[in-house]
Design goal:
- InterPro entries: PGDYG_prot (IPR025688).
- Pfam families: PGDYG.
- By secondary structure, the protein is α+β, with helices and mostly antiparallel strands.
- The protein is about 15% helix and about 35% strand.
- The longest helix has 7 residues.
- The N terminus and C terminus are likely disordered.
C-alpha cells in the first residue's frame, strides 16, 4: 500500500496509515538528533502471556503481547508498554532503595511526525500504533555509539510523554568541554 494511501480496514477512523519504513524513515532517523531517556518507571516481569494495551491521555495508542519473562513497564502518565528482558536491561537499571522501580538511561534518535497529521503505523511488535500530529517518531540507539540498532524498529512516542522523559544528548565535543578536569595521579 502507498504511504498515506487508503488505510487497511481496521485502522481507526481519522488516522492516516503510513508505512514509515517504505517512506525512508530509517534513513531519516540515522541523522536525527539523539535523546537520552531519564526518570523512573515501575516495572514487573510478566509471569504468563498477557495483552498490554497502552493508553495515552485516555486514548489507545497500541497493543502488545507480553510473554513470560518480558517486562511490563508503567511510565509517568500511567501508560504501560512491553519490552523483552534483554532490551529492558539495556535501557533501565534498578533503583536500589525502591524495589520495582527502575531508572531509565537508554537513548533514541527521534523526529517530529513528518506528516503533521494523525498517523497509524505498524510497529515492530505488530498491530497498529497511533500518534497525534505532534507525536515523535523514534528508533533506539546504542547508548555508547548512538548508532541505531534496528531501523525496522520504528515507533511512536506521544509528545507529552516524550517531553517528560527525554532530553537532548550533548554532542560528544560539548560533553568533553563541560567534563571536569581529571585529577592527575601522583607519580613516584
Amino acid at each position: 500500500m502507498e504511504a498515506g494511501g487508503q488505510p487497511p480496514m481496521d485502522v481507526e477512523p481519522g488516522f492516516a496509515y503510513h508505512d514509515l519504513k517504505a517512506e525512508g524513515m530509517g534513513e531519516t532517523l540515522t541523522e536525527a538528533p539523539v535523546y537520552t531517556k531519564f526518570g523512573e518507571v515501575s516495572a514487573r516481569v510478566a509471569e504468563a502471556t498477557e495483552e498490554v494495551v497502552t493508553h495515552i491521555q485516555g486514548k489507545e495508542e497500541t497493543r502488545n503481547t507480553a510473554n513470560p519473562g518480558d517486562y511490563v513497564i508503567t511510565g509517568p502518565q500511567g501508560e504501560q508498554y512491553v519490552l523483552a528482558a534483554n532490551k529492558f536491561q539495556a535501557r533501565y537499571r534498578p533503583v536500589e532503595e525502591k524495589p520495582g522501580t527502575f531508572e531509565a538511561f537508554g537513548k533514541i534518535r527521534a523526529v517530529t511526525n513528518p506528516h503533521a497529521e494523525k498517523i497509524a503505523i505498524v510497529p515492530a511488535w505488530g498491530g497498529y500504533q497511533y500518534g497525534e500530529p505532534d507525536c515523535m517518531v523514534a528508533t533506539t540507539v546504542d547508548v555508547v555509539t548512538e548508532v541505531p540498532g534496528n531501523l525496522d524498529d520504528i515507533y511512536i512516542i506521544d509528545k507529552k510523554s516524550f517531553d517528560e522523559t527525554y532530553r537532548p544528548t550533548q554532542p560528544p565535543q560539548a560533553a568533553a568541554a563541560t567534563a571536569p578536569t581529571p585529577i592527575p595521579t601522583p607519580t613516584k
